[in-house]
């Protein structure tokens, strides 16, 4: 990821001093779908093939990605499309696509220790150095598969999912970890990708939780230190089976 050094004046305990700070470089890309301009994306300049593949998958635009090529500031994706692509404003204020999703089915399970371990991996060197990016991780069969940083939380998810798409990884055996909030459009990304568990260090929203319930996703938020909150489908977490209801709507907090 591209970073630059910028000058600033840091004030600590009332005392100013000149510093040189490491900050993230902001880049803009044009995304083309089957040769036609689709949208513009503000993102960090790395893992761009993964970003393209993940965008198409997580938006529910296509269940298959044939190819992704990056030329300068353009990301070209070839993928079969069926049905209408209805545009909508997502939680970042950008343009997304509203598409129906199929419920996520998976026999995957995890332990409390798994949640703590995955949460501990939701950081990158760029995140530690700058504090100016979001991070996502993707675990497959309890092993770390890939990490991604980006200016936007949506793009970090696209990048790690895109890595799995391009690598032919079974996403029903994956767990997604993210630093960002989980409103409806973020949870919908996991649903379109077929990922059964989402762990976030941040909060969700009413619609995010309701979407996870309908999608069959185990949504875990506020995963910080020694605590986390399970909002939906707790039956996937060992020791929480007694909190499960038929529709996965019961919540419980582990402290």
Q: Main sheet: which strands, in order across?
A: 10-9-11-12-13-14-15
- Beta-strand percent range: 35-45%
Average pLDDT level: 90
Roughly how many Å apart are the termini?
A: 36 Å
The Cα radius of gyration reads 19 Å
Largest sheet geometry: 7 strands, mixed
Briefly, what CATH class of the largest domain?
Alpha Beta
Question: Percent range for helical residues?
Answer: 10-25%
CATH superfamily of the largest domain: Cytidine Deaminase, domain 2
Structural class: alpha+beta
In N-to-C order, the SSE pattern is EEEEHEEEEHHEEHEHEHEEE
As an assembly, this protein is single chain
- How many structural domains are formed by the residues? 2
With helices defined by DSSP (H or I, 4 residues minimum), what is the helix count? 6
Shape: globular
Q: What's the CATH topology name of the largest domain? A: Cytidine Deaminase, domain 2
Counting DSSP E segments of at least 2 residues, the number of strands comes to: 15
